[in-house]
Amino acid sequence: RYVVESSSASVKEMQMMMDESRLIGMDITSVEVIMSDIHDCLKHENFKEVEELVEKGKGIITVAREKHFVEIATVSSHELGSLFDEARKLDIDISREVNIPETVKELLGTGKPREAAQLVAKARDGLQDQVNSKLSGILDERLDSVMKLIGEGKDFELDMTREEEAMSVMEGLREMNKYRDAIGALKAIHESLRGKLEERRGPDIEAPT
Question: What is residue 4's predicted lDDT score, i.e. its pLDDT?
Fold first, then answer.
């Protein structure tokens, strides 16, 4: 009975490791095959082989999980570094984040990939939120300017079909959090509307900054 309970506990532990691995997006196909073999062994009460397979499966998960977190930490650190330039252009304070890539290297060097991945992912997401918030504010300012021109265009009964279609594209970019692209689209719309209005009433429309 002790052997049965011990094997059952080992299998449950391995199952929990598999469930946790799925939750963080790991591919555990090879381990699922091993788990299938384990159930076959349990049916035939081959408990010694069960324990051997469990240890094999847990070992594979442990190695794969460490590799998974190393990859996350590496990619997230690169993404964070790319955000630094964007943040500086927007006058966002990055004093708390600027040393994180170095800290991540130290954590990876001391065998702490999970901690490294969690640290840098949190920093990246936080800084991305700040960048998005700043760009969203800029977009709103540009949008107000364009809406005024659209209002003037309606007064002059201008054909703004192309600009209206471009506004729909811009809104799609905004919904996807592609603020830089949306701002670029608004600038093009502004220039197009300004050109049409200048033809009607002269060049007195201020260009966007």
Answer: 63
C-beta separation of 200 from 152 below 8 A: no
Instruction: Please say whether the beta carbons of 41 and 21 come within 8 A.
Output: no
Identify whether the C-beta of residue 124 lies closer than 8 Å to the C-beta of residue 79.
yes
Per-residue pLDDT of 3-49, as tens digits, reads: 566 778 889 999 999 999 999 999 999 999 999 999 999 998 899 99
Task: Give the whole-angstrom CA distance, residue 112 versus residue 75.
Answer: 16
What are all long-range contacts of 122-128, with beta carbons under 8 Å and residues at least 24 apart? 123/80, 123/96, 123/97, 124/76, 124/79, 124/80, 124/83, 126/97, 127/80, 127/83, 127/87, 127/92, 127/94, 127/97, 128/83
